[in-house]
Amino acid sequence: MIEQYIKDQYTATAVSLSKSYGFVVSDIGKVIDLFRSVRHEKMGRLLSLGSGDGRVENIAARLFGFNVIGIELSPQLVQIARDHTEALDEVVQHTGIKTKDGTIEFVTGNYFPIHFRKKVQADGLTTFIEGHDPYTNFKIADFDFVYVYP
Ligand SMILES: C[S@@+](CC[C@H](N)C(=O)[O-])C[C@H]1O[C@@H](n2cnc3c(N)ncnc32)[C@H](O)[C@@H]1O
User: Fold this and answer.
1) Is the CB of 135 under 6 A from ligand 1?
2) b vs e for 49-84, b when ≥16 Cβ sit within 10 Å of the residue's Cβ?
3) Quick one: residue 65, left, alpha or beta (phi over 0 = left, psi -120 to 50 = alpha)?
């Protein structure tokens, strides 16, 4: 089952990633339960804010058929998420295992919209302001669901 391949792949790297990047990842079983509890005829489009190592996006697309865009501030984490996604693509190709065919795209940028960042900057705050504007080809209103684990 693709679920087991995703679990195995991300279990192997979770600890070292948390240590090097200092962030906490979502528990794969809990993410699966969460999406299972979402009763919706068509899983549609999912926006993932702070996509980290790409686990949520791979679960959402491959197990539930969401078309997913993940926004992530760290270019290194975007690369890691793309590498995981490529590795899982290869598993699917080589094993012929059945998956839902949702699409996955990772975009480097700051998920706080630019108008909000300009406002906090004008108010004298310096947090949350760096990073590309990821909302050049899509907007938050295009999506049916938003996932965030800040
Ligand atoms: C707690 S981790 C969750 C990662 C992943 N979504 C998961 O559930 O395993 C939060 C992620 O959000 C990213 N992040 C934090 N602030 C961000 C921002 N303003 N814009 C984009 N990404 C951000 C961090 O780099 C980190 O990868």
Assistant:
1) no
2) bbbbbbbbbbbbbbbbbbbbbbbbbbeebbebbeeb
3) left
Span from the CA of 48 to the centroid of ligand 1 (angstroms): 9
Establish whether residue 55 lines the binding site of ligand 1, counting it when its CB lies within 6 angstroms of any ligand atom.
yes
The structural domains of the chain, ordered by start, are 2-15+26-148 (3.40.50)
- Ligand 1 centre from 67 Cα, in Å? 19
Among candidate residues 65, 1, 56, 8, the one with its CA nearest the CA of residue 33: 56
Are 58 and 86 spatial neighbours (Cβ–Cβ below 8 Å)?
no
Lookup: tokens for 115: 């108008």
E-strand ranges in 9-78 read 45-49, 67-72
**Residue ranges for the chain with pLDDT beneath 70:** 14-19, 40-41
Pick the residue whose CA is nearest to atom 8 on ligand 1. 26
Which pTM does this prediction carry?
Answer: 0.94
Return the pLDDT at 18.
67
Residue 80 CA, chain-centre distance (Å), reads 11
